[in-house]
Specification:
Pfam families: Hydant_A_N (PF05378), Hydantoinase_A (PF01968). This protein has 20 helices and 30 strands. By secondary structure, it is α/β, with parallel strands linked by helices. Helix 3 packs across helix 7, helix 4 runs parallel beside helix 5 and helix 9 packs across helix 19.
Length: about 675
């Protein structure tokens, strides 16, 4: 096989699988691709396992490595970041969850970049010295620092002098208004610094160990890539890099510069869109773990339904269960077909489990759902939590088979749920992956155990297992269709669309839909095994629906499709005064890192802003070995006008630079 000199490796460490793809970028050829289970809590193990499956000789010829991973998202969700102290400067609200790790001091600027009041250096000194032995980094955010960051810079210098610790400033991460969100963003970024360094150093060491001499980049959540060194300083920008990889991979594999991507993963399904080769970006900052940030991320809809989502029935009485009581997700479980490979005894356990005819069905109380210890160390549990945990076994069992006399015979489902959320209890259950084993469309593990689970659930509704699985496929496809329509047209509500599709579309019992939603935008499916859902999705959507070749590793390919990008946002504040003769005296003010400037005309201010931004972009690209001639520049100028009879009050200048990520 002929190999060019432009071979790249993409790796995506997702929620269930870690995917890898070796790509000849000259011919856009996928040379090799592999999948391995993602390892927790450290994804490096999964990366090592998937690399072991690739040709070592081709790996040594690789020139570029680009990675997407969930380490930042998981660290925030699991609250495992490094201890950080946040210093807010100016009149700001303390985030409730950070009240024990935060101080507010005097200082800050106004909306024109002028100082509101002097910075309280003594207050900062006192606070830093009081907490320096309890934290490993500091975050600083000042009021209106995007217009004048001098107080943040001064605070950083003082903290460095006092501690030598890393300091993250809000103005470096966000250029939009929102002091609260900017402070949260700085705090989260600081908490991720050691995690990012550990992970990225390990990846770099692993490639070196394998004889790979590669340029290493990582995909950010806005679809751009950054060198490892930059990511180590700004790891918060990698949250949700997986969804960014999915839409880029969908475009690359399908050859569609404009398309909508549906990425079906193990835990969730993400819907996003790319237009003219650039991912759509949300106007709102990314929200993760309840934290609202100023991190620019791709616009996406996330559905808590994936290949490993729990399929269960919610009913007070099993005899009264209806089709509408069938739930898909939101919790992820081990599929029955895969669990059999790990615990062969589960088939007999399920067969021999006695179910009362009037059983009440809940998430953990199902004919097909088993529990066991996860293997994580149990710590800091209450007495009741410990009692429940100690009842669990190392092998799968039904929750109603335990002795619950300590709780007056009632199963404490609320405590069980807390232990599941703490990852101390693992669930095994019926999933869409099992459904596809029953239909024969995807067979990787044990078919008979999947069929057993389907039969147990189907008998609740007096159905054959095959009919039940066809119903689940249509239900899953409807979930995808609803989110797709919502993404393209937010005039509907989710409830309205569900009612509409149930009323006019296929209700799961019929043979086809009467009315479908039309889209001229191609819909690209990626994730394994998405091609199985094309017929069902077509019942609800009238569109070109494609599962391209190599769809199963679309995210790994997407890591390589991201571009180097630099975005510069500037604001021109306008001071205007109407003279007695009706003329206007106008001054155009702009603050950049070069300082405060005033201009006599709008054209002069805009020209200066564009020139400054382009210089900043070219400097960034040069640092990444990109020539000016290879940079694509896009400029947007927007005037804010409140009264058409008066001059604008503000001009926003956005300049973006893009370049191919190549060696």
């Amino acid at each position: 096989m002929f190999l060019s000199d432009n071979i790249s490796l993409g790796i995506d460490a997702g929620g269930t699988y870690t995917d890898a793809a070796l790509v000849d970028m000259d011919g856009r050829r996928i040379l090799q691709s592999q999948k391995a289970l993602t390892t927790y809590p450290n994804p490096l193990g999964g990366i090592q396992n998937v690399l072991d499956l690739l040709d070592p000789e081709i790996l040594k010829k690789t020139k570029l490595l680009s990675v997407s991973t969930t380490f930042a998202t998981n660290t925030i969700l699991e609250k495992n970041g490094a201890p950080v102290a946040l210093i807010l400067i100016g009149s700001q609200k303390v985030p409730q969850d950070l009240k024990d790790n935060c101080v507010v001091v005097k200082g800050g600027h106004n909306y024109r970049g002028a100082e509101n009041e002097p910075l309280d250096l003594e207050g900062i000194r006192e606070y830093v010295l009081s907490v320096k032995d309890k934290v490993s980094a500091f975050a600083v955010s000042s009021f209106y620092s995007i217009l004048n960051p001098e107080h943040e810079k001064t605070a950083r210098e003082l903290i460095h002098e006092l501690t030598g610790y890393p300091v993250v400033c809000g103005y470096e991460l966000a250029h939009a208004l929102g002091a609260y969100e900017r402070g949260v963003t700085a705090y989260l970024n600081a908490s991720l610094l050691p995690v990012a360094r550990t992970f990225l150093d390990a990846v770099a060491e692993e490639t070196k160990r394998r004889g790979m001499n590669v340029k290493t980049t990582m995909l950010k959540c806005n679809g751009a890539v950054a060198m490892f060194g930059e990511v180590m300083e700004r790891p918060v920008e990698t949250i949700f890099s997986g969804p960014a990889a999915s839409v880029l991979g969908a475009s690359f594999l399908s050859g569609k510069e404009t398309c909508l991507a549906i990425d079906v993963g193990g835990t969730s399904t993400d819907v996003s869109m790319i237009e003219d080769g650039i991912p759509q970006i949300s106007d709102l900052g990314a929200t993760v773990g309840g934290w609202k940030t100023k991190v620019r991320a791709i616009k996406m809809e996330t559905i808590a339904a994936g290949g490993d989502s729990h399929i269960w029935v919610r009913a007070d009485n099993v005899l009264e269960a209806r089709f509408s009581d069938i739930m898909i997700g939101p919790r992820r479980v081990i599929p029955l077909c895969r669990a059999f490979v790990m615990y062969p005894e589960i088939a007999e356990t399920i067969k021999n489990h006695w179910t009362p005819h009037n059983m009440s069905l809940a998430e953990f109380m199902q004919k097909t759902t088993l529990v066991l210890k996860s293997g994580y160390v149990a710590a800091n549990l209450s007495d009741d939590e410990m009692k429940v945990y100690q009842k669990m076994r190392d092998e799968p069992a039904f929750i109603d088979d335990f002795d619950w006399k300590d709780f007056d015979g009632d199963i404490p489902f609320n405590i069980v749920e807390m232990l599941v959320n703490k990852r101390l209890i693992q669930l095994i259950g019926f999933t869409p992956t099992d459904v596809l084993h029953v239909t024969g469309e995807f067979v990787e593990w044990d078919v008979e155990t999947a069929q057993l689970g389907a039969r147990k659930l189907a008998e609740i509704f007096g159905m054959a297992k095959e009919d039940f699985c066809r119903f689940i496929k249509r239900k899953f496809a409807k979930i995808m269709a609803v989110e797709t329509v919502l993404f393209l047209n937010d005039t509907f509500s989710r409830d309205e669309l569900n009612v509409f599709m149930d009323k006019f579309g296929d209700n799961g019992i019929g043979t086809g839909s009467y009315l479908r939603f039309k889209s001229d935008i191609p819909i690209i499916l990626i994730g394994a095994p998405v091609q199985c859902f094309i017929p069902e999705l077509g019942m609800f959507l009238d569109a070109e629906i494609i599962a391209p070749e190599h769809y199963a590793v679309g995210n790994a390919v997407g890591c390589l499709a991201g571009k180097l990008a630099k975005r510069v946002e500037l604001r021109v504040d306008i001071e205007s005064k109407e003279e007695e003769n009706g003329d206007w005296t106008i001054r155009y003010n702009m603050f950049t890192t070069e300082g405060q400037r005033a201009f006599p005309t709008k054209d002069a201010a805009v020209h200066y802003g564009e020139t400054f931004a382009k210089k900043d972009i070219y400097k960034y690209m040069k640092e990444n070995d990109v020539a000016e001639s290879d940079v694509e520049i896009r400029v947007k100028v927007k005037e804010m006008i409140y009264d058409p009879q008066k001059p604008p009050v503000q001009i926003d200048i956005l300049v973006e630079g893009f370049a191919e990520n190549k060696v």
